[in-house]
Design a protein that fits this description.
This protein has 6 helices and 5 strands. By secondary structure, it is of the alpha+beta class. Belongs to the universal ribosomal protein uL10 family.
Length: about 190
Amino acid sequence: MAKVELKQPIVDEISAQVKDAASVVVVDARGLTVAEDTQLRKQLREAGVTYKVYKNTLMKRAFERTDFAQLDEVLEGPSAIAVSKDDATAPARILAKFGKTAQNLEIKAGVVEGTFYDAKGMAAVAAVPSREELLSKLLGSLQSPITNFARVLNQIAEQGGASTEAPAAEEAPAAEAEAPAEEPAEAPAE
């Protein structure tokens, strides 16, 4: 078998992974300890992100004629890719968070929904909350006015219930307040 025939299954594997991907992030993970690498892979796997180290030439060949061909310029030195099909920001978010504790992890670049981002751009993408977080914030924003309106109505109802008893209670102190005013005031002692 020729070398090309041996490498073609790997190229096909990479192509299949990135075919319907929402995002692909290229990282340099040199210097990570085995424990750090295991922990990183576990976090990525739990988020539904595929993470694997491939040869740069095989990745370049797999990325040909796709949106991910833009990544060719950063494919130098040891590289790994994190691929997500569902949550476009998940790989960047997890890798950036993990990179804060593991100094040897470097995000080189990425393509998110067809747009190329360099390392600084990927930091901005990593700051974007997940879809679930955004939906929960939206739901909270939608529920907030309704909740506040319900509180106001509840306070009005409570005050309305107290106001039926309040006039009788207010009249008694008013009568007492008038009585002492009619009595002669004592002259101050000199």
